[in-house]
Amino acid sequence: MQNDRLVNKNNSEIFLEVFTEIERSLKEICNDEYTSNFSELLRKARGLNQVVNYYASDLKEFAQLRNAIVHTRRQNFIIAEPHHDVVQEVVHINKLLQNPPLVKTVMKPNPFRVSSSARVKEVLNTFAEKGFMRCPVVENGQVVGLITAKTIARWLVSSPANIDNALVNQLLGYTDKDDYCIVSENADIVSLIGHFDSSVRNGAYLQAALVTNNGKPNGQLVGIVSPSDFPSIVGQLKVKH
Question: How far is CA 14 from the centre of its chain?
């Protein structure tokens, strides 16, 4: 444990102190200062926070352990002393809730992008050479769309054209705003995962999160996150034993 306040404390003391902080975080997430029932807090918070959702089962078990520790205390010892791995996990969850990793730690930096005046053939050649499946369109420093394989398919079916001479601006009418969202590089990965989950619940499917320095379309495009990046993102949530 790197936190100085936890040094020289036994496992049960660390566990109770950190679990109390987690419970406080759940109240903040739910904007519910007065609910004392941890199960109810957990039920509400797991729908609002991806870290809570990911660790919901563990947190439920930790609540039972907390109760066991509190109700079996003796004057000089604790009957239900937590294992080191349990303490390590509860500390990790608390850290994720208070200081989750930022989007810039998981994004692919400096993504391939094109202007609306670029040739469609350039996009297709890059897709083929690099194995890309999506490409942001940036015009005058502003993100104006995302070209995907579906975009090109819609265009070809609806408006047969000479690919050699076609420009990207001809594709923009076939892009789908639901294919992407724009997030700040300093947003946390909890909110990032939330964007992707919300799109699925709404019957859509995000092809990418486009990362700008300010989280707005007119910000500098600095990165991209696609569904294929999710194994590494989820890996950031897991506790390292």
Answer: 28
Please report, for the chain, the start and end positions of each structural domain, with discontinuous segments joined by +. Answer: 4-99, 104-237
Residue of 178, 182, 236 whose CA lies nearest to 209: 182
Place of tokens 């502003």: 142
Is residue 82 a contact partner of residue 12, using CB atoms and an 8 Å limit?
Answer: yes
- The DSSP 8-state label assigned to residue 119 in this structure reads B
Q: Check the CA dihedral 202-206-210-211 and report its sign.
A: positive
pLDDT, block means (10 residues), the chain with 241 residues:
62 93 95 85 91 93 91 66 91 94 94 95 92 94 94 84 86 93 94 87 88 96 93 80 60
pLDDT value of position 35? 72
Q: Quick check: 183 and 191 in contact, CB under 8 A?
A: yes
Residue type, 132: F
| 104-237 CATH, one of 3.30.300.110, 3.20.20.70, 2.60.40.2250, 3.10.580.10 | 3.10.580.10
Looking only at Cα atoms, what is the longest distance across the chain? 84
**Distance in angstroms (rounded) separating the CA atoms of residues 79 and 77:** 7
Q: How many CB atoms lie within 10 A of CB 175?
A: 20
Q: Name the nearest CA neighbour of 25 among 83, 78, 97.
A: 97
Q: How many CA atoms lie within 13 A of 103 on its CB side?
A: 27
Contact 160/127 with Cβ under 8 angstroms? Answer: no
Residue 147 to residues 138, 180, 220, Cα–Cα distance (Å): 11, 10, 18
> How close are the terminal C-alpha atoms of the chain, in Å?
12
